[in-house]
Specification:
Blueprint (H helix, E strand, L loop, with lengths): L2 E7 L3 H12 L8 E8 L5 H9 L5 E7 L4 H11 L4 E6 L2 E3 L3 H11 L3 E10 L23 E5 H7 L12 H11 L3 E13 L8 H21 L3 H7 L3 H10 L4 H11 L9 H31 L1
Parallel strand pairs: 1-2, 1-4, 2-3, 6-8
Antiparallel strand pairs: 4-7, 5-8, 6-7
Helix pairs in contact: 1-2, 7-11, 10-11
Length: about 300
């Protein structure tokens, strides 16, 4: 079977280059797979880098460029352009093991009409090539685009990604719900291994992380409006007890203020550790739930009109 590996990226040229170079080292026949990169409105020279790599790449590379429109839009364009029978989705901060593609193909041959989930091994070390399990590796998602594959025909039958998701978050899980309704089964292949690079947080990262998590909160509400199943509520944490807990922990924004004061005392550029890291995680969580509350109130106001 022919394979398409799809990556969407925006302004992460250096990480994307490493991801592509790992795909060049695959044990799978280079004539039987292609890579499609979607540049979602980058301004850091991402497209130029991809074009330069494509000149000497051992496999076919297609580049799709678009004004920033989000992952759902970009992935759909790539699916339509894909020549592969199987489409494997990864992100631009993913470094694939050399047998990654071959293992996905083996699983599809063994398990037709399936979503194949590989092992996403989280690491803060870009040089690491030996997996070391951590709790962040555990995922119960049916369809998670850090390392997942499915036949193109089922993506088309399901209706592709929902382009109402224009910001970060949940578009892959929402599509997974529809693929599951088509009767596809989720299968795991832990030999289809990738390393997911997650650098250590510094206090300089916090504004970017807050911006991203607020976007994720807005798309969580979109997800819930499309599918009000209990599992969606639990996955997004949009249910009354969890919202009440956030209000209590962040009473009159005191939780936010305390966490911000702890983070502000940390040294510039140094990784957040221990209590400071815990405060950063809570601060991100406060912003997530605050944004959800804001979106829910806005929705209630619109419905009342």
């Amino acid at each position: 079977m022919k394979v398409t590996v799809q990556i969407c990226s925006m302004n992460r040229k250096k990480l994307l280059k490493r991801a592509l170079e790992a795909l060049f080292e695959q044990s799978f026949d280079k004539n039987d797979f292609e890579i499609i990169v979607v540049d979602d409105g980058s301004s850091d020279g991402t497209s130029e880098m991809v074009r330069e790599l494509a000149k000497t790449a051992p496999c076919s590379i297609k580049l799709i460029t678009q004004e920033h429109a989000g992952l759902a839009s970009g992935r759909n364009k790539a699916i339509r352009e894909a020549s592969g029978d199987i489409i494997i989705f990864i992100d631009d901060d993913i470094i694939a093991d050399k047998n990654f593609i071959a293992e996905h193909v083996k699983s599809h041959a063994k398990h037709p009409k399936s979503v194949i989930m590989g092992w996403v091994n989280h690491t803060a070390n870009l040089q690491r090539r030996t997996p070391k399990f951590c709790m962040a590796d555990i995922s119960t998602s049916f369809f998670w685009t850090s390392n997942v594959s499915v036949e193109k025909k089922y993506l088309i039958e399901a209706g592709l990604f929902d382009e109402d998701f224009k910001e970060y978050g949940w578009e892959d899980l929402e599509l997974g719900r529809r693929l599951k309704k088509l009767g596809l089964k989720r299968r795991y292949n832990f030999k289809a291994l990738v390393f997911h690079y997650k650098g250590h947080w510094t206090k300089e990262d916090i504004p970017r992380l807050i911006k991203q998590t607020r976007a994720k909160a807005r798309t969580a509400v979109i997800f819930l409006n499309k599918d009000k199943a209990l599992k969606v509520k639990l996955t997004t944490a949009v249910y009354p007890p969890r919202l009440w807990l956030n209000r209590m922990l962040n009473w009159k924004n005191r939780g936010e203020a305390f966490c911000e004061s702890v983070i502000a005392r940390q040294k510039d550029g140094e990784p957040l550790k221990g209590f400071a890291l815990l405060c950063a995680q809570h601060l991100i969580s406060f912003h997530y739930f605050n944004e959800i509350e804001k979106e829910l109130k806005k929705q209630e106001s619109n419905e009342a009109l």
